[in-house]
């Protein structure tokens, strides 16, 4: 469709760019891990996203086209341009401040760029949002890495009683159990492990591994 588009449509360019990076757009892929053909595809995708964004960047409708910026940031991250990825994501948030996914992505980008304190700040700002549980899991993981176990517990413990989506439940229990053990709160760790044993045999087996 891209090669045969007579209108030079920014939407077609963006869709084609997305197709180019989709096979390699994962949380851990970077330039050094990509093949030469993948690198060429990512670079071409960045150029296509740029052309699409340039169509709208000086118009009143640019706030409706921030996905071009956001997706260019995704491609730049794959290319190893973390500074560019962060800038594109920040610009997208400026234009669409209510987009939760943009804000989570920025928190992940600054974390990967070794600014863990800024990542913590950005995730803390997402507490109380419609993605509160997701923010709590990610934030408590950051605190665990910094060995701030009390802070991690303070963030994650509400999810032990309030519940959350199943896909996050394993992370919640693992974080809480690990924090209890690190803080030598053995009775709490035992009680939680017993609860897991009764309600989630798969997670119990993982904990005992």
Structure write-up:
There is one protein chain. This protein has 209 residues and is mostly helical. The protein contains 11 helices and no strands. The longest helix has 19 residues. The termini are far apart. The model has no long low-confidence stretch (mean pLDDT 88).
Which secondary structure elements does this structure contain, and how are they paired or packed?
Blueprint: H1 10-21, H2 36-54, H3 66-78, H4 82-95, H5 100-112, H6 116-124, H7 132-145, H8 149-162, H9 166-182, H10 186-199, H11 201-208
Helix content: over 70%
Would you identify the regions where 5 or more consecutive residues have pLDDT less than 50? none
* Largest sheet features: none
Mean pLDDT, to the nearest integer, reads 88
Rg value:
21 Å
Terminal residue distance: 50 Å
The succession of helices and strands, N to C, reads: HHHHHHHHHHH
Shape: elongated
Helix count, per DSSP? 11
Count of DSSP E strands?
A: 0
Structure classification: mainly alpha
- How much strand? under 5%
Key structural traits:
209 residues; mainly alpha; 11 helices; 70% helix; 0% strand; elongated
Short description:
This protein has helices at 10-21, 36-54, 66-78, 82-95, 100-112, 116-124, 132-145, 149-162, 166-182, 186-199, 201-208.
